[in-house]
Amino acid sequence: MRIATWNINGLRARIDYVDEWITARDPDLLAFQELKTPTDLFPHGHFEELGYKSLVNGQKSWNGVAILCKQEIDIEETGNSLSGQEEAGARYISALVRTSTKKTLEFINLYCPNGKNLEHADLEGKLRWFDSLTKQLSNETQAHRILCGDFNIVPASIDTWKGEKGDGTMFHSTQEREKIEALYQCGLVDIFRQSKPDTEEFSWWDYRAGAFHKNQGLRIDFILASHDLSNSVEQVFIDREYRKKIGDLTASDHAPVVADIVL
DNA sequence: ATGACACTATTTTAGTGA
What we know:
Blueprint: E1 2-7, H1 11-25, E2 29-33, H2 44-49, E3 52-57, E4 65-70, E5 74-79, E6 92-98, E7 104-111, H3 121-139, E8 145-150, H4 174-185, E9 188-190, H5 191-195, E10 204-205, E11 217-218, E12 221-226, H6 227-230, E13 233-238, E14 257-261
Parallel strand pairs: 1-2, 7-8
Antiparallel strand pairs: 1-14, 2-4, 3-4, 5-6, 6-7, 8-12, 9-12, 10-11, 13-14
Helix pairs in contact: 3-4
This protein binds one DNA strand of 18 nucleotides through residues 9-10, 12-14, 34, 36, 60-62, 114-117, 150, 152, 170-171, 204, 206-211, 218, 220, 250, 252-253.
């Protein structure tokens, strides 16, 4: 099964670009973040024509997440918020997926809060949001689980163009990195890092100042899998090609992250 | 040192993003 996560930075502005990628890569199950679209304006029919059904948690202007899967896959939405974080915006959607081998897979899609900067009150909100996430994962265990999305945290110095010079700065702070560590403690494995322990690759590049061409990026988009699933990964890659323009179509500032997993 | 780009909104400048 091909699984992917992608912060598309505005569904309505990106829809033709998204179509190009879906057609090229043919994922089975995918997680979108930053829809910037209200739930009731989501173009369900558009994706049905491409062969997908959609579960959507959107809002006006900002945030918004969706899970898309091939029409033949058995899927059921199970939640659209973290307990205690209902005011944090549309950042969470989860589903149970029945695989072809009759496993029940919990699939969670996240758009984690940004936090703005180390001095801003939003950082505290970001840290508490992660605490709510960890608590929920601990309270409601699942044998087969995938947690993916835009985490807005750089786990280690290899995951940033700033290297060790980034340590302690926003997105690279110890207090943020502890929240990623807490997810590992919940039995989840970052499958990109597992398959490529020494590879410096990024999933986000600033639009400004030619950051993409200078490869000044961050790896902040992950697919985390429970240990049993992490052993069934065939390949994981960051689809850097789809951070580039396609003709007149502008790319998101994030690249898709794709994994092929035997399920 | 700063800004740089792209998106959305009862848009025409401002807020947000990472």
